[in-house]
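hey so u asked for the seq, here:
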Amino acid sequence: MIYELRIYHVAPGKMRALQERFERVTFSLFEKHGVKVISFWEDVEASENRLYYVVEYESLEQRNERFVGGFQKDPQWIAAKAKSEEQGTLVAKVDSYFMKSVPFFH
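ran it, structure tokens below
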């Protein structure tokens, strides 16, 4: 298994709008495309303005097929993203890290 940690640096004043987009649209589209979110967090200090989540995949190929080739190209996602950003972008920057488990930790 591989894991992708995605960190969203949220545009000022847009945290609630981004969370609502995840709740109303993104999670159901993730499910449709087989994108399995393991956990989801936000900063304790609201001033940090970041959202974090980890996704589990069997391989990088599976990730690229499901996330890039499926989810990101889904017309419903493209339309929802555009509508949610009519008043400005919700995410200023995304960091993405790919990780794998170490054999000595269970």
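The domain at 2-99 is CATH 3.30.70.100 (Alpha-Beta Plaits). The chain has a mean pLDDT of 96.
lmk if thats what u needed
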